[in-house]
Specification:
241 residues, mainly alpha, 11 helices
């Protein structure tokens, strides 16, 4: 039921080891940069260029100012804490002067802002009263997107490309003409029972990978359980020591 226990990115970000902190930062940034970027564009009505700079600035501060040292999971979810930090930064931002002061040593992420803009163009900007909900949904969508990519890689490495293709066609395809089990069986040259088994395997792997991501992005067991309940709608059994 549970991902293998390991040091989560939240705890690793507080490590005395610089290499461990850097790896943790990369994992946190991968999950949060798109929600942060889109939120800045939507709430603060920033241009694309300004939002890109502010997103880079925010994650540089996460590293340089050790934002996560102040995070208390018993008081709020990490995404709520980070959204509050984003708002505080933008409110007090003098971006040009600060960027010049930080100079060439600034942390810079390699982020696909073009992809984020394309997603925004398709979904549109939310109304002001829906901004908090918008940030939450974007975070969920990004976590699921990371999980899908990890599943794709897992299937490729294990020689299970057909399992992933069927999962993508049946569970991820948002079109109106979703294929039936029988149609997928004929298309891939397998039995209908194989379609059932392939989907069951892929769904279990997707769930495992998603839980693994959540374990990495939470600071303790209680927060992990809350996020699992929120994203997957499941109550996990108590972990036995």
């Amino acid at each position: 039921m549970f991902p293998e226990t390991r040091w989560s990115a939240i705890l690793a970000a507080r490590s005395a080891d610089p290499a461990e902190r850097e790896r943790a930062f990369e994992r946190i940034a991968a999950a949060y940069w798109k929600p942060v970027y889109k939120y800045i564009r939507a709430k603060w009505n920033k241009s694309r260029d300004d939002a890109e700079d502010l997103t880079q600035e925010f994650f540089a501060r996460v590293v340089e100012k050790d934002f996560l040292a102040a995070y208390q999971p018993e008081k709020a979810r990490l995404r709520t804490f980070l959204r509050t930090c984003v708002d505080a930064m933008v409110q007090n931002q003098h971006r040009a002067a600060h960027a010049q002061k930080r100079g060439g040593e600034a942390v810079t992420l390699s982020l696909d802002f073009e992809m984020a803009e394309g997603e925004l163009a398709r979904s549109g900007l939310p109304s002001p009263e829906r901004l908090d909900e918008f940030f939450e949904k974007e975070w969920v969508r990004n976590v699921f997107g990371l999980a899908v990519e990890r599943l794709r890689q897992t299937c490729r490495e294990r020689g299970k490309a057909t399992q992933f293709q069927i999962f993508a066609r049946y569970d991820l395809d948002e079109g109106d003409s979703k294929s039936s089990y029988g149609e997928l069986a004929r298309e891939f040259g397998i039995a209908s029972t194989d379609v059932t088994n392939y989907l069951a395997w892929a769904r279990r792997e997707f769930r495992r990978i998603t839980l693994d991501l959540l374990r990495d992005l939470t600071a303790n067991e209680d927060e992990f359980r809350r996020e699992a309940r929120s994203l997957l709608g499941v109550e996990l059994p108590e972990r036995r020591e």
